[in-house]
Amino acid sequence: MAGNGRSDTAHRRRAARGLRRRDVVAALALGPGLFAAAARGQQDVALTSRKTHALSLFGDVKYPPDFPHFDYVNPDAPKGGRVRLYDIGSFDSFHPYVVQGEPVLGVPFIYDTLLASSFDEPSTEYGLLAEEVEVPSDYSWVVYTLRDNAHFHDGAPVTPEDVVFSMQVLKEKGQPIYRFYYANIVELEKVGDRSVKFKFNESGNRELPLITGQIPVFPKHYWVERDFSKSTLERPLGSGPYKVGNFEARRFVEYERFEDYWARDLPVVKGYYNFDRIRFEYYLDSDIALTAFLGDNYDLRLENSAKNWATRYATPAVKSGAIKREKVRDKNPSPLQGFFFNLRREKFQDRLVRQALGLAYNFDWVQRNVYYGQYDYPNSYFENSELAARGLPSKEELEILLPYRDRLPEDVFTKEFKSPRGDVNGFNRDNLRDAMRLLNLAGYVVKNDVLVEDASNKQFKIEFLLVDVSFGRIVQPYIGDLAKLGIVATMRVVDTSQYQQRIETFDFDMVTGGVAQSLSPGNEQREYFGSAAADRPGSRNIAGIKNPAIDGIIEKLIFAEDRASLVTAVRALDRVLVWNYYCVPQLFNAEDRYAYWDRFGHPDPFPPYNNGIPLLWWYKGEPKKPKDEET
Predict the structure, then answer these.
(1) What is the pLDDT of residues 116-154, one digit of tens each?
(2) Positive or negative torsion for Cα 102, 108, 114, 119
(3) Are the C-beta atoms of 611 and 595 separated by less than 8 Å?
(4) Checking CA distances to 377, which of 164, 166, 417, 438 falls within 20 to 30 Å?
(5) Distance (Å, rounded) from C-alpha 350 to C-alpha 343?
(6) Do 160 and 101 meet the contact criterion of CB atoms below 8 Å apart?
(7) How far apart are CA 125 and CA 171, in angstroms?
């Protein structure tokens, strides 16, 4: 089950990784005056610190230290039953934190973190393993004090040594993303019987203290006798609400409730983890997976296919109400999905070429004939939020953008970005005419009906890399329009493991990608769009963007002094991204589509910033099936 993503089927594997790790999106907002002084290097300012039970980017938190539970949970939800989810592909490892192996979904259920997210406040975290957090006004360090009753499943206490070990082993032996993402953590030490201190190599970065709170804490005594860098099917030891139960590699896994879970009575846990068992079923094909759901072989799915939603649910179980369907809208920015260019390939380095290829994509025809009118065309990387750039740049945005004017397209300053729409009847002549003009300006001409580089006579070819053959219904019409420009385009469908390997090594021309943003963009923008991540295997800078202006704006964003400054910097970043045409936007959707067998209860309404599946749901009883489906 893909957690909270909205990307279509071809991108499901990357979206599904949301269940493998918790979001790292929150930050602090403490004393902007002192922050500004520290950021300017005024060492004579006396720094202050405070101790708190929670951290938030937006200042005050909703819940006081003695709160009984989050408002959005059902604290009296019955415990018991089983929920069956699904994934496409296979697995051969319970260790998603390293490169080796194909990891299973759900491993974060095993491990606790220092902090836990609130689902009804943007970017706010409360103590889980940590009962108290201390931060200075310049954000140059953070101290966590652990709860004295926190323990692993074998009864060993969670200690500062475990926290230190977890951070160090992730940076040294974990996936490359950890070394990059935690690069600003330069010192980590035990400072008391139950306290651990993280020190950073920069001050003023408000997100760094909270990033450390999302590190999964591993038991040092367990891993010192094992090689952390290797994949494994040995059941891991954790401190979280579940442990690994029955499983069969590549087919299914069950997580069983750990009855002696140390945190079960904490306010941040009340109403969570209501199922005795959480099971993931694995399927090699998305169409087979849907058929299995309709046959009651698993319970709940996020429907990523507009075609399936429109055509595949006309069954007796749906008509009788045994299967429920819901559309849920949240308050997070809607993920942008698009065909991303690989700028590491010379043919895509010219902005005019990228713009031309975007004009060739006929969204309006695809929207009517493939998407069944269920999607919108994105004009921003931050749709459905105040972060999206609209109109012309404000005075405040210009203060950020003008120093980079000679490195930016003039359109950034003079026009509002609108994605090209196309023609609903399939006759995309005007856009194709403009596309050909741009290609000619970029040095390409058509010879013998084939687009070639005028100087070298080299054909212009594109291969679309896919992991799901059903996504061909989106690619094939695009290939047809590209052919009208003389471009030789093909699509290559590969299995999940090969697809992942080719993505991580940037072995593709164009690929469907998604960028899921939060309401508090921060350090992760370096990973999405920063030059330092462009050539690092496994990074999320899919396009290979290396733009000094973007690097500079990201730093402005990360070191923003307050919410208003953050919004301004994000909008400036948004303008530079869209006007550089790093991808051909496909769609965005402000709603998630869920189908589930009516044997569960869930919060109503859903919390605004996370759907809580399956964390907040509970088993209520078997649905009454229509007679022709009863066995």
Answers:
(1) 999 999 888 999 999 999 999 898 999 999 999 999 999
(2) positive
(3) no
(4) 438
(5) 9
(6) no
(7) 23
State residue 130 phi and psi, 5-degree precision: -95, 130
Q: What is the CATH number of domain 336-587?
A: 3.10.105.10
For residue 56, what are the β-bridge partners?
124
Asked if the model's pLDDT at residue 39 lies above 50, the reply is no
**pLDDT tens-digit map of 147-197:** 999 999 999 999 999 999 999 999 999 998 898 889 999 999 999 999 999
Q: What is the CATH number of domain 9-66+111-223?
A: 3.40.190.10
| Mean of pLDDT over the chain | 89
pTM of the model: 0.81
Which band of pLDDT confidence, cut at 50, 70 and 90, is reported for residue 48? confident
Calpha distance 227→237 (Å, rounded): 14
Do 243 and 258 contact (CB within 8 A), yes or no?
yes
- Supply the angle between the helices 548-558 and 563-579 in degrees, to the nearest 10: 160
627: pLDDT strictly greater than 70: no
Q: What is the mean pLDDT of residues 266-271?
A: 98
Which is nearest to 56 in space by CA: 119, 148, 121? 121
Q: What residue type is 205 in one-letter code? A: N
Residues of the chain with CATH 3.10.105.10: 336-587
The amino acid at residue 631 is: T
| Tokens coding 165 | 């070990």
Q: What does the pLDDT look like over 498-545, one tens digit per residue?
A: 998 999 999 999 999 988 898 889 999 999 999 999 999 889 999 999
Task: State which H helix or E strand residue 6 sits in.
Answer: none
Short-list 30, 80, 66, CA closest to 622: 80
Distance in angstroms (rounded) separating the CA atoms of residues 253 and 276? 14
pLDDT of 629: 54
Task: Give start-end residues of each CATH 3.40.190.10 domain in the chain.
Answer: 9-66+111-223
Number of residues written out for the chain: 631
Q: What is the rounded CA–CA span in Å between residue 337 and residue 25?
A: 20
